[in-house]
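[job 4417] fold queue: 2 targets
>>> target A
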Amino acid sequence: MVDEEALLAQFTAQFDQQTDDSDTTQADSNDSDNIPAFDADRFLQGLDAIFARHAAASEAAPYLEQAMSDAENAEDDAGLLTVLNETMGFYRSQGWHDKNQWIVQRTIELALRMGLEGSETWATTLINCATAMRAAKQYDQAEDLYTQALHCAEQVFSPDDRRIAALHNNLSMLYSETDRTEQAEHELRKAIDLLASASENPSTDIDLASSYTNLALMLLADGQIDQADRYARKALAIHTAACRQGKDSAHVASALAGMAQVRFAQQRFGEAAGYYRKALAVIEKRYGRDTEYWRTTDGNLRQALDSAAKNGQKVGIPADINGNAADCTEPGSDSATLLSDVNGMNGMEMARRFWEQAGKPMLQSRYPDYAERIAVGLVGYGSECFGFDDALSRDHDFGARFCLWLTDEDYAAIGTALQEDYERIAHAWRSEHSSADLPDSPATPRAQGTMRRDGVFRIGDFFETLTGYREAPPQDAPHEWLALDESTLATATNGRIFADALGIFSKTRQGFTFMPEDVRLSLISRRLGMLAQAGQYNLPRMLQRGDGAAAMTSIHEFTQAAISLVFLINNPVSVGYAPYYKWRFAALRRLSRRMATRLPGVCMQLEEILHLASAACFGMPGTTAKHKASTTATPPADRINTIIERICADIVGELQREGLTRSQETFLEWQRPYVEEHIVSDAPCLHSL
């Protein structure tokens, strides 16, 4: 099965994040009349409402990011700690582990600054941080944090406190994930004993159900299938009883998926598929499709369906006392709609599905000696590689596809044969899934021949086609880096990698993300120069001359430089590069919604400038700027100039925060020498005249 333990380990035992609100959620009142107070209780109520209406997939992230900003602006450390703890739990549920590591670091630093070490809040915060690190597979750090948390908890919590049970539960999962089975079972049974004795009603205790599911999986891995079945049934029985009392828990997905794995091990494949279907419904409803939870469970569902079909088994859940727990998932839903359907997928999801269903089995059966040496994924040209494809994208060069990247040696041995096999399975898979909603998409000449976007490639050839380099230029070759356009670098570093056991492709791709710091600073300086020349100097002059076309060109140059600058300020190694013009605003909007993004307000201000541009430069259609008549109190040209100056002031503020300038000057040309002071190299190409 596909990473089932990792999936369920992330789903289950998440009750550790449910901290005592009295510890971390009560915000102190803010005495400042100028800064609005942060209401932690109201924040938590709003977050609960989002989860209650099952809108977390689309609404939780921006809500948390805004709350973080509000708490910081109110200088409310207690409120900020509340938001960070909730953010850790949500990011973990979404599989956003890279982003979460920054949240963990920030949370610990904040708690230490607040002097919370040795308190209940400190123990709870350590538990949350450790669980986030465990989900990210940073096991050494997670174990250290859990150990600190347990030591603190034993000092400040009562012996029957549920948070101590949560600690033992999570330590068990860490030991299980690091192949320390005996320690894992010992810790888990400790957690179960604590919960059973502390619970007011064990028959409806969701936390106890999560522990039973974990124990079932542990026993299953040890070959004790009958015992695993027993505890999986116990977990579902608790969820059934809790559901009847109106307790709606997302953790029922882990119980359903756990039972599915037990049934699969018992070769009752049809029942396994039935449980996976129900689990998938909960995951999609709670977390959305664009999560590792959904993809892993969906892959397991397909495997169970295939096994059921091969063995002539009917798909469904028997009407036993535990199977009815599925009724709590999504009443009235048509089970057929829960099956994976390529018509509703974006291109990256479709690529992963094609790989898992057709590509991976083909490699394992026909190239067993090479299967673990081949990197697989989707990177390069195409809107789906950036995650921006939609229904309009399907009119050309669109379809299920992925890339296979080989070393030169492996390509020489199997490259030609593998390409033929890839084309064979691609034709068969596309024919099988073709429909009115997903018709054949014509291939344009730009996506064929040497510019083809899928199939088998030598690793070096692939990157050379995109960038002109077989690997990233050396760090001490700034002139070569400056010759690479940002959109080229974006294309070489976008997309996703599905498999790369050797790590060669990933390492090569990552090399292009490591733009030398001197080059980044030089480009920031260049963008400051263009912003000053196009927006602050030439645009007002062109408007005064009545040259609408030149004014519009100035706005374009200012906009492009501003977008590039935002990506450079946020550092491409963290956020990627600004893509080519078609997707620059889509990428900027996405970046601006991310937590802790620098200059997040630039996007909205640039869009406002573009809305005003036509009226400012040309007035009514068919006229020139000389003849335009403003119907507003402030002419569009004046409004644009005001916005530009506000953007430039924001940029100066960010440069100061980054320590890149000591100057208050808002004409950005004069900021360039301060930025270039930080360039270490004396290479002439890095410095302005």
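>>> target B
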Amino acid sequence: MRLLLLLVASWAVLGVTLADSSYNYFRLPTALRPQKYNLRVLTHFEDPDHLNFAGTVKILVEVLENTRNITLHAKNLTIDQSLIELRDTSSDNKENCISSTEVNPIHDFYVMHTCNELLAGDIYELTMPFAAELNRQLEGYYRSSYNAPATNKTHWLSITQFEPASARLAFPCFDEPNFKAPFVVTLGYHKRFTGLSNMPVKEITPNEKIADYIWCEFEESVPMSTYLVAYSVNDFTHKPSTLPNSTLFRTWARPNAIDQCDYAAEVGPKVLQYYEQLFGIKFPLPKMDQIAIPDFSAGAMENWGLVTYREIALLYSSTHSSLADKQRVASIIAHELAHQWFGNLVTMKWWTDLWLNEGFATYVASLGVENINPEWRSMEQESLGNLLTIFRKDALESSHPISRPIEVVSEISESFDQISYQKGSTVLRMMHMFMGEEAFRSGIQNYLQKYSYANAEQDNLWESLTEAAHKHRALPKTYDIKRIMDSWTLQTGYPIINITRDYSSGIAKLTQERYLLNTQVARNHRLGCWWVPLSYTTQAEQDFRNTTPKAWMECDAVSGEVLPKTISGLPGKDQWIIFNTQLSTLYKVNYDERNWKLLIETLTNGDFERIHVINRAQLIDDALYLAWTGEQNYEIAMQLVDYLRREREYLPWKSAFENLKRMKNIIRQTPNYEFFKRYLQKLIEPIYQHLNGLNDTFSGIEQQDQVLLKTMVGNWACQYQVDDCVPVAQAYYRSWRNEVEPDKKNPVPINLRQTVYCTSIRHGSDEDWQFLWTRYKNSNVAAEKRTILSSLGCSREVWLLQRYLALAFNPQEGIRKQDSMWAFQAVAFNEIGFHLAREYFIANVDAIYKFYHPITKDMSRLLTPLSEQTFLQSDFEDFKNFVNTNRASLKGLEQAIQQSLETMLTNVQWKERNYRQVTRSVEALLDK
């Protein structure tokens, strides 16, 4: 706030009108276009209480239409109007001048009225000075810090985070993605630091005015959007890892974490080379830097040539990070490097098509990781994980289309959600599977070549892919990608396909409608039509490799309504069919009761492993969802789930646990929890024993996803006190506590640490909690710190949980702002902590909002555990009233609030409709 007052004051002094500009549209005018930026920024770290920067930007501006003003973006910058210069480079450097300026704070516009009209065809050089505080808000050009253990001193660094619309916080600019231009960046700083930017260093010269300061000028960049500009001043060290004949590649971190860069330094160049082959285009820049930032709001950011990461997303320690941590690092690196083509080389015209960036990077990252680590089977894991997420999120009426209109800048950040990322990725995978490898790859390469260094929208992509699909005969000439894919990207939700078989004639009738969790929504609100590629197999055939559609569900070209669909040639009454091979398309399937029973028979007594592992996961997910909303009864669903006592693969168990967790969140607060708990113990015990419990058998496990299975099963087994899980976990923890140097030696198996810590804190003493909190403060590894944060919330002591909630939002206590939500979520998902967390959130909502402002995305994540565990009508009404009376402290969270309230409502409906039925089904299975 201090800075804002300073700016208002300085603008008033300099004669700037702080009023609504006469131009009040949310997008920039199109009369001008930047051709090149020359940006000089001087950063001061001397006084920790006043870290600041000052600079000058020179913008070459082409005039496309006659105009008398220049409108660009500037926010929270001190700009001295008297020092702004404007000259016409087209006519003997003729001076123009700025007669007055005004500010539109709603759209962050800085408007300069010119003395003389700017004429179309001319090119002007605009020079503007600016200054501001190096802010603490994790956006724009901001500060971060770390403590050096040897000296216990704070070391400061600066970094940028401009996506989606924060370059305007760092320098005046045309801050929209379609105003691409080359940048020449020059950084000024004390010579003991290092400067980094998108491009390699061109030259370093002494600062002519400040002793021991230097100017570091970087090479001119390729044309790029403002949100991809990046620079940093730091005292980091780096690890080089260039592959032969490839781009210069470096991985940067604070000096006391550089030993955690080895894995990222190995993965990055490999993935970059794979993408060069996949896209048929060389990486366009001469170097690639990736850097781990201690304070960072996003997971990572794809700035061209200087990718920034949270420490947990880039750093990996073989002695502290689990396999899941390692896979996350590989996946995030692959995601950010995919953006160098999808997003950076070809950029969406406007944030409506954000999914072209994020959906593509998410999908292509799974191809990249699969290429360098096929033994992980991560493509299957990633695909199923995305589908499970979207089946949940997109079944809410309050969801939104993948491609959504953005009409206010504040709406952009809400689009960085699971719909843009996971649903975007899922529909691309669907398209890849129905087009085939050759046509898909050819279409993508054509699209990237056609729009390199330019901007595109989704219709441009559809054109390139349709052309390739027809050329390679992947689609009939009468089909085009736009008609198919618009039904997935412009429409909210996904379909449920009801399949009714006539067993005597071998025919099935298919219908589709939108699947919704809210069962009170009227049938006429479930309308919609999706173009659905239909792949399927039969019990006799069991061909799960072929994902090519055998038929399509189509939509009428005029009315948009579903065209009737019948499939013939199906087997008789003793054979099942399974639709959606390898879950290649985003839809739920409901069969008639006979088909479900045939499937249950195979799963329970037959050769169930011949059904593809993803389809086994699908059957569990579909059966439990359909039972949740009443399209199926729980007796069938729970009989199907019961086969899991035979299952030894990771994906079906993941699907089951995701669904059982939602039921558990409600049932554990009811009198019949005892039956549900006993049922889960009975279900989990065989797989727990098969995996040798919590014994450290990891070195002998060959299949990497079995490591993930053992980790997940161990977690559930200890929660439900299966077999010896709790005492074994406590024994591990005791042996760690007995170590002379517990920060250097930890006998707990790395992949079981989350389970061991949480179990020991849940069943442990105050001293156990304090021991772990000390380990958190002493740890130098971000992944370990996150594991500990999540485990500290497992306590059953009310006073400890209340103390922990207060610690989470106190910046002096050593939990960084971006990590506070892990602590809150851990408390809130704890059965005792839930009520404490809800009360804490309601009582402190103003303070929490101020803590996160202006980046409210993390605050929205505090709502997830609150919504998933609310199931009483009275609690739902109370939360609705709370929202209505606290709108100001929930600003920017409108989408998250709406989805949270809808989730609560669906829980209320489930409890009223299904609770007794589930209890009966569980009791019946216990009696078997």
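[job 4417] complete. Note on B: Residues 1-20 have pLDDT under 50 and may be disordered.
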